[in-house]
Amino acid sequence: MLAYVVAVQVIAYAVLLATAVTTPVSTRSWTWLGVLVVASVIHLEAAQGIERVRELAAEGTPYTHLQSVWFFAGVLLLPVPLQAVLIGASFAHEWLRVFRRRAVPHRKVFSACTVLLATAGATLALAAFYPGVDPGQPLVTALDGPRGVVALVLAGLIYRLVNYALVVGAIIATNPDEPAHRALGPASDQLLIAAAVGLGYAVTVVMVHQPWTAPLLLVTVLALHLGLLLPQFRAAARTDGKTGLVSAQWWHDQAAAELERARRLGDPVGVLMLDLDRFKRINDRFGHLAGDEVLRAVAEAVRREVRGTDLVGRWGGEEFAVLLPGVDATGATRTAERIRAAVSVLHVTARDHTGQDVVITGLSLSVGAGAFPTTATTVTDLLLAVDAALYEAKDHGRDQVRVAGAGTA
């Protein structure tokens, strides 16, 4: 496996070195590079929430990188050395901002190298179709008629197949106990890449002929990305209808994947279990509809007090679970105290069972806190530990945080 990864990277570096010393780079190419880098950064910033979930959910299968829109546009506009700059900038930004340095660095380097080999292969295919094109000119200007369509389709196929084959090979090699077909990922991912290739071509045509309309295509890419994938993942997460939080099963599956990542990185992962104190009294006094308003308000308060990288789920009834990647038990306790304080000052306006408007106050939470690996090393054991800490908080007067194995916080 090590030899395979090193070989792919060495070939990518060799391609970069060979093209860097032989390919002329025009001033206009640098301008287009700047535009594509800015577009890719804006794209990732807008979609970072869903991309964190998609990348984690894709563990063990190829992670379909929708930055392919900009990478394939780079094939049609930029020489290979500048394609490498675009790819490197995108992966570096992704590692820093989307995954907050919690992705395995050598995996990202390997993935970037596979993308560079894919873009170089696609560039070579287009150059073979149009050998007379000035090396300083973008290849998109040469595409014309049916021949251009064939060249574009071939370049798109090479781009996808090179990257896909190299990544699938690595996944199969590192997961010998898993069925090989699982490494192929869902067939629908191929449609996403086909769409990305088409959009990449549209981006280049607009940038060459009507550059002032390019921002409209960026909006189009973002709209398709968020409009199509976000509902898909919300459905997959089986979002709780009352609170908008993810379901207990989805939360558990994501927690298991996050612990596996943390085990590789040597990072901690905090877990909180929260229970709304005396919730039955609220239902009995004001009615279940008012109780539902309280649950929604508490859920929103919890979400406001955690980071975008954290995962909040409804565990059942009036219980909530929070996953805190990269946070140890001390940090989890601080987060729990912030959440408890935020809930304590809530004023929830609701309608009681008589139809009268009421304001419900005096809410409190009992919280159990713990962290991987100090509290436990599996999701099940970690949940059992923080649940026991939660009941300890209940037994000792409620409205407090208890750390698993450490007493009151």
UniProtKB/TrEMBL annotation:
Keywords: Membrane, Nucleotidyltransferase, Transferase, Transmembrane, Transmembrane helix. The keyword Membrane applies. SUPFAM superfamilies: Nucleotide cyclase (SSF55073). The chain crosses the membrane at residues 6-23, 70-89, 109-130, 150-171, 191-208, 214-233. It comes from the Bacteria. Signal peptide: none annotated. Pfam families: GGDEF (PF00990). Its EC number is 2.7.7.65. This is Diguanylate cyclase. The lineage of its organism: Bacteria, Bacillati, Actinomycetota, Actinomycetes, Pseudonocardiales.
